[in-house]
Amino acid sequence: MKIISGTGHRALAERIAAAAGVELCEVDITRFPDGEIFVKIVDNVRGDDLFIVQSVSIEPNNYLMELLIMIDAAKRASADRITAVLPYYGYARQDRKDQPRVPITAKLVATLLEAAGADRVLCCDLHAQQIQGFFDVPVDHLYASPVIVKYLRSYNLDDLVVVSPDAGGLKMADAYSKLLGAGIALVGKQRKSAEDVEANHLVGDVKGRNTLLVDDMTSTAGTLTAAAKLLEKAGAKSIRAAVSHSLLTQKGIDRLINSSIDELVTTDTVPQREWDDFNVTVLSVAGILAEAICRIHNDQSVSSLFRVDK
Length: 310
What we know:
This protein has helices at residues 10-20, 60-76, 105-116, 145-153, 170-180, 222-233, 250-257, 286-297, and strands at residues 2-5, 27-31, 37-41, 49-53, 81-86, 120-124, 139-142, 160-164, 183-191, 197-203, 210-218, 238-246, 263-267, 280-283.
């Protein structure tokens, strides 16, 4: 078993390798003057079970192309099996054709990964479950919830209500509510643009209760802050938010600072900036990903990783 990393999130790859008890293989990744990417796997990987770690975030076009080239280099270096490890799957929000003449880019990414030579895929908290069906190779889909729930339980919050900020996240909210032994509520929203959201309806009782907004990702924080405003108006005692992937823009950061959200709990699936102006807790998914990698290598079940220890 060997692990290599792209430049998308090397810090996470190093944590994964350490947790798996191996060292990262050496890879030279450089750019030609015109921007073309050059990859050379320095260590010998012939006949190895190779795991390539790359978060396709922040600069998704750059890091996706880098991942495809690394997979091709590994294939031509005669690696026995190549697993693409994507802590964050870029383009996952474009998972369906919801208007005329638009692509299903999440499917295109799946096709590209397979064409490059990936034998299987390991990912965390896909934006839509059906993306697994876009692949004709095995997909191991992990969740950040065991890490996030373990942290939230340390608060021992009474009268907790898990809130889905939109209808699409209701299944995730239901899963969190069961794990935390909490109630559940739903916010109805209307998206005005890619960055602006209006929350108009709240289903559920949150008055005088601690609330937790859960979502798989946030970038401009429009959905979270609009929902938080509605919860505050409904008399919520406290408001926290938990998201698996935090891709916050400056606009999103400003919105959180000016919102009624007390804390944002997220993970290190994507690189995180230094937070001095808002209460953010970043939890690591390196342990879960490392355990999954070891189990895949040893042909063991990964289903036990979905359990949340009491």
